[in-house]
Specification:
By secondary structure, the chain is an alpha+beta fold. The protein is built from eleven helices and six strands. It folds into three domains: about 130 residues, no CATH class; about 100 residues, Roll (SH3 type barrels); about 110 residues, no CATH class. The relative contact order is 0.07.
Length: about 350
């Protein structure tokens, strides 16, 4: 009995926890990657279990609609396998069922990776971590050094700052020894943090060193080299200065550009999700679903490039280039829907016939 409980427990961990781990690994990425390893084991296990369950729900839905597996037959298979394991029996699996089970495990990991990555992109794209404390990552140094902290509610209410942060300058007071402190100033190019979120190392470029003179005009000495490394354990204090880009645009024009960019990003994000999910709703072969996904993805890329030509100040494509991109969008879209069995061509001819009769 103990052996069966152990086997069942291991299966539950593999099926539920492992996809959750992959979800979190691809959610905590970039400057926030260390957060994946932070926290107590119990907290990490519970959160991995939760996201694993969410992943399994999505995977189950996609798997059922992709391979046309009946709910009742799958439930019967899982129940029978569970009962045999509890009775210390080796489950009698057919080759097809074993293949589907292994394919399901692979699909759950793939879905977890996709969901984790898209969740991270969604939070960062719409700045949910900056505007809401619930979504904020634990790497506070990234927000301070990148200047994103200026966009939070606390700073917006106390500082009238406009413009984009182009660079971050640091004045760092470093302890050399007993009574020997030195001030360094330079452009911050990189920093590293420990898994617990504490700052480890600062990397400066164009560094200048100030002497410990007490006079008003403190001389500065340029330090030769491309990268100056300062261990944070020797830092007494720091002063952060942001170099902002100055623009002469009016506030209304700035708000209009931001709103245009926001809705464009919203369309791009949700349309990309639709590209990967829409083909799996149709009762066609898996090859047809994969082929339609690729065609719809090409269509999506074409329309995104087409829209990007109207978002920036500089137009990259002329009328012919824009017309070509829009034509590619339409061709790939029609082919993708045709593979899925959507009668789009028939509907277009019927629509044209309707307008012809209406004109007559």
């Amino acid at each position: 009995m103990d052996a069966s409980i152990t086997i069942v427990t291991i299966l539950y961990i593999v099926i539920l926890v492992v996809p959750g781990v992959f979800f979190k690994r691809f959610y905590f990425q970039g400057p926030f990657a260390n957060q994946f390893q932070s926290g107590q084991f119990a907290d990490r296990f519970v959160t991995s279990l939760f996201w694993g369950m969410v992943t399994q729900v999505v995977t189950f839905f996609l798997f059922i609609n992709t391979f046309n597996v009946e709910y009742s037959s799958l439930f019967e298979f899982l129940t029978k396998t569970h009962e045999e394991l509890k009775e210390n029996k080796v489950p009698n699996m057919e080759f097809e069922k074993l293949t589907n089970f292994l394919l399901y495990l692979f699909a759950s990991v793939t879905v977890a990776i996709f969901l984790g990555h898209m969740a991270f992109q969604f939070v960062r794209l719409f700045k949910l971590d900056i505007n809401t404390n619930v979504f904020r990552f634990s790497n506070k140094w990234h927000y301070h050094f990148s200047g994103e902290i200026l966009r939070t509610k606390e700073f917006r209410n106390n500082l009238a700052i406009s413009g984009k942060v182009e660079a971050t300058l640091l004045d760092v007071l470093v302890k050399y020894g007993e009574g020997d402190d030195r001030l360094f100033s330079g452009n911050l190019i990189q920093f590293t943090t420990a898994p617990d979120g504490n700052l480890e190392t600062l990397y400066l470029a164009g560094t200048r060193r100030y002497s410990n003179s007490k006079g008003e005009n403190i001389p500065a000495k340029e330090i030769p080299g491309d990268c100056f490394v300062i261990p944070y354990q020797n830092v007494l204090n720091m002063n952060v200065q942001y170099i902002l880009s100055k623009t002469g645009e009016k506030k209304r024009q700035v708000l209009f550009e931001k709103g245009k960019l926001f809705f464009a990003q919203l369309f791009i994000f949700f349309s990309l999700i639709g590209v990967f999910l829409y083909p799996w709703y149709f009762a066609v072969s898996i090859l047809a679903k994969i082929g339609a996904t690729f065609l719809l993805l090409f269509s999506w890329v074409s329309i995104v490039i087409f829209l990007s030509n109207f978002l920036g100040d500089k137009k990259e494509f002329g009328i012919k280039g824009s017309l070509f991109l829009f034509t590619l969008f339409g061709v790939f879209l029609i082919l993708g829907l045709w593979i899925l069995g959507v009668p789009i061509l028939k509907s277009m001819f019927e629509l044209l016939h309707f307008f012809e009769n209406l004109m007559n």
